[in-house]
Amino acid sequence: MVMETVAGGLRAFSHSFNREIRVAWRKPVFHWLGWCFPLLLFALIASDFSEGSLMNLPVAAVDNDHSTLSRTLIRNLNAGSHADVSQSDGGESAALEQLRQAKAYAVLVVPPFFEADTLAGRQPRVTLYYNALFYGAGFYATQDFAGLVSTLNTQYQPVLAAAAGRPMPALPNASLAYDSLFNASGSYIYYQQFGASIHMAQLFAVTCMIYVLARSRPLIFQRYFGMALLGKLAPYTLCYTALLLTEIALLVGVFSARVVGNPFYILCVCFFYIMAAQSLGILLFTFTASAISAYMMIGILVGLAFTFSGMAMPALSMPWPAQLISQIEPLTHALYALFDLFLRDVPVKPIASVCLILLIYPVVTALLVRKRLFVRLKNPEASP
User: Fold this and answer.
1) What is the CA radius of gyration of the chain?
2) Coil, strand, or helix at residue 109?
3) Which of 27-36, 107-116, 166-175 has the highest mean pLDDT?
4) DSSP code at position 357
């Protein structure tokens, strides 16, 4: 009896799985939801976050000294990778107006008598303004400035000491060894682009689940309802897992992102994350009166995911209610785990714990909709 039930359930799963693949292959809407539109959006986002987006940012320079030292300072800042410096002909007021109109992301102001005051040891002040409203671009436009000023200070310390008639103190002979785990100009781009890709995977998985379930009323006539439902949803689990892996492969192959972790771990996290995202779609469909109402709830879901996943603001700096919402979101766990695999060789134990956390979502969803989903499919949809 038990073996007959198991065999019947497997047959229902297989029949539903094969039938859904044939139906989805013939309908263009599933191609658009499954891979066409997500890849088009990925290409659009990739062009926005491509390598060089945070390089050569326009910076206006106001040189009130016109000395050799001021020209050297401006030239060296322009030679850096982040700033593309151009002289402002209208003075400081015109340069600040460029900053307000977002025609420049930063303004460098060199004061009069800059070189003379420097050589006299009077410590002149060079000012670099940036537009904080454009946090990424404005902040990155200033990245090379601190190192440049430090280099100039080191260079002119012997000159000032000689002018003052005081010998320079002997400096200790220290050796420095370092290795960069997170490259600010490179990894930041990959993090933003990859975070956007994960958000899109959840968005399309949830939308697709609502669309599929809204057309799944024939499932109520199946003897093995649960297995038939799993067979109907399984093709989309594989589809969106493959989509997410493809986007990661494009990041590595086309945009030169460096993945240090085990690719098999990435596959596992992607698979369980897609199942968790599908669970959210099933919950939205089951506990709303119509598919239209479920679609409207997606906006709230996406807003919560973006706000509390740690991309818009640091999760550890949030108050505890916000941190609780962040931990409830499956995207938070998948984002941290996958980007951790980008940066380092993560052992299997933390990856397994993340997969188990993501597995909680389909298990809890199955318990919540065990009877409700059958009734939801059986009854006609109410008007939104």
Assistant:
1) 29
2) strand
3) 27-36
4) H
